[in-house]
Amino acid sequence: MTIEELNKQVAENRGIPRGWPGDMTYKAIDEPTVAKVIITANTASDGVLKKIDPWGFAFLSKAQDIIGKKSVEMKFCIPIPDLSKKALQYEALKRRLSYLAVANDLTIILEQGTSPDPLYTEEELKKRPDDEVVRDDFSRRGDDDEAGRLEKDFQTYLFGKGLHDDLAQKKARTNERLGLFGNDFIRIGKIKNIADGKPYNVEREFPTGAFHEKVGKTNRVLPTEYVDLVTINRNGDLSLIELKFDDPKLEVIPQVLNYALFFHAYRSQLTPLIDKRLACSTERRNLVTYLVSNTFHERFDKVFPYYAKGQLALKQVIMGYMPEPKKE
């Protein structure tokens, strides 16, 4: 297949089931010394800003099958967002693209309207300005919050339904049930917290979201999202866990990178709250982010490796995996 044939094939499959999203266009150009991949959003809606990067990398993976190891320049073209509504998701996208450029040693250009918007450096991603703040506390979620769906019910089970502040029976939430997630959590109940000799705690629906100068709706810098579970794995790493069931969208990949980048950028501010909720010291622990699902998008294996590179550890956990029996 040639680049021209790829462009034509993708264009013909925009906006159809199992095809390519129709709210953006995809174009590859194969020049003598460099290949260019241009992804243009039709709108700056939240939905497009959440998914343009994984679909852009899905297109890049197909282009790279043709161009080989030639240098690549990616450009993401976004209409100027409505600053009153869309700026938050735009900022999240800008941070993801900044990280992905460094992690994959790629030239990535973000264009807002007709003007290039310089991406952040690696240092700027990690050390944010002093006037950006995060929450120092948040309300606990009830055991039955939003129950009735597989994902939420499973989250509630893992969190320990009925154990919330049960002082009469001296029970506490632990992360023992996360052994379902494989090697990083297997027999986790036998790993004790040095502080009190008990299994490590688990916190549910930990809010993200940064603010300018003070926490408030009108001061938002990043959108508020909720990490399903935060705990410590058997290696002693601070672990962020996102649960997705029967939801095979590529958009789940940038979502977990959002979480990792948030904790990476604001770790020092978050540490007192994390230590309080997990009842242990977390300042010097490595950070690992997990995406747990029973089903993944058919292009997941092509896109996830771009996100899993770099200094932030992102891991895939497959629930309900049934390997094919070996043939004699």
Shape: globular
Number of alpha- plus pi-helical segments: 8
Which percent range fits the helix content? 25-40%
Write down the Rg: 21 Å
**Spatial order of the strands forming the largest sheet:** 1-2-3-4-5
Structural class: alpha/beta
List low-pLDDT spans: 166-170
Distance between the termini: 37 Å
Number of strands: 12
Beta-strand percentage range: 15-25%
> What is the averaged pLDDT score?
88
Quaternary structure type: single chain
Spell out the helices and strands N to C.
Answer: HEEHEHEEHEHEEEEHHEHE
Q: Which sheet architecture does the biggest sheet show?
A: 5 strands, mixed
Any overview of this molecule?
With 328 residues, the chain is α/β, with parallel strands linked by helices. 30% of the residues lie in helices and 21% in strands. It contains eight helices and twelve strands. The chain has a five-stranded mixed β-sheet. A five-stranded mixed β-sheet has the order 7-9-10-11-12, sandwiched between helices. The protein has a two-stranded antiparallel sheet with strand order 6-8. Strand 11 (287-293), helix 8 and strand 12 (313-318) form a beta-alpha-beta unit.
